[in-house]
Amino acid sequence: xxxxxxxxLGCYVPSxxxxxxxxxxxxxxxxxxxxxxxxxxxRHIAPKDVATSDMAVEAARIVLExxxxxxxxxxxxxxxxxxPDMLFPATACLVQNRIGAxxxxxxxxxxxxxGFVFGLTTAAHFIMGGTHKRVLVIGADTMSRILNYKDRxxxxxxxxxxxxxxxxxxxxxxxxxxxxxxxxxxxxxxDFLRMPAGGSRMPASHDTIxxxxxxxxxxxxxVFKYAVRKMYEVSRDLLAKHNLTINDIAMLIPHQANxxxxxxxxxxxxxxxxxxxxNINRYGNxxxxxxxxxxxxxxxxxxxxxxxxxxxxxxxxxFTVGANLWRWQMDSPNGPPV
Length: 338
Ligand code: ACO
Fold this sequence. Notes:
Layout: E1 3-12, E2 17-19, H1 20-24, H2 31-38, E3 42-44, H3 52-67, E4 76-80, H4 91-99, E5 105-109, H5 115-128, E6 134-142, H6 152-155, E7 160-170, E8 178-185, E9 193-194, H7 206-210, E10 217-218, H8 220-241, E11 251-254, H9 259-269, H10 280-283, H11 290-300, E12 309-316, E13 320-327
Parallel strand pairs: 4-5, 4-6, 11-12
Antiparallel strand pairs: 1-7, 2-3, 6-7, 8-13, 9-10, 12-13
Helix pairs in contact: 3-4, 8-9
The structure holds acetyl coenzyme *A (ACO).
């Protein structure tokens, strides 16, 4: 059976920065409140003419250039997003066409903040099934397009970005990357975090716009409590399933929703802070893109090296919950842009 490994990684972050001070000018909030309650200091916001596929294409191009392969050797393109350019065609089709991945198939994967972890799991199984050699997994979200900048409880939390990896086949067991997963969905929590309108239940109308139904609606404390508990449980159970302990892990790379969620889950796991990647201060919650962005930081800062075991964990709207164990198989970066 072939093994799956991550062989390239690239990210795209729009240059425009929105600081907490900028938010203070448009909504009743403060830098101190945001930092204390979330850990976020700034987030990047895409210009008006940039959509999710544009950022996804930039991240994908970095991956292809870094790996030095033509786009038409990619077998599948998965775009993990809750902010597609439009409901259809899938953003995966737009990206596939723009990068020139002729002959590939693919789809959009809607799992909110767990999207990228679900995408990694999916790609690994495509590879291990022997039917695919190269799968591009992209997490990309333009969250600023679905925020109500009058709702201080949600608009301060999110930012825009994209990140991508190439998941590739190898026959060499020493090169095996994917070790295992534990993913769940729990629709009983669906009402706590959602965008109510714009689908078949509540199509766009003057009323849905007047009632602000096309933006993120959230019961923050419910989401917070669930996220802490499940990020801990799914990580603990996945490690146990593979007879591993926290000592075997080089780095926990969690979804970046709230610094307090991450530290509470990490404390329960008993993992020391230096083994937990946190970069929410710079980017906020970029939904599908947080894990590739955090992985890039861990990799470029030398916190993960070839042979290390990495634990990815995420909780998101749905609810969706996912954890993956991967052995990192990339050499330390030596020049190419990531
Ligand atoms: N600035 C100032 N005050 C605020 C702000 C703000 N931006 N937002 C809320 N408040 C106020 C509230 O109105 C409330 O005031 P009140 O006591 O007068 O009623 C007070 O702060 C406390 O509100 P809480 O909602 O209890 O604040 P909490 O400490 O729970 O923090 C937060 C809110 C940050 C949203 C938190 O619940 C959270 O992070 N939840 C998880 C949400 C999340 O990350 N979702 C993203 C996707 S899902 C995922 O990724 C897991």
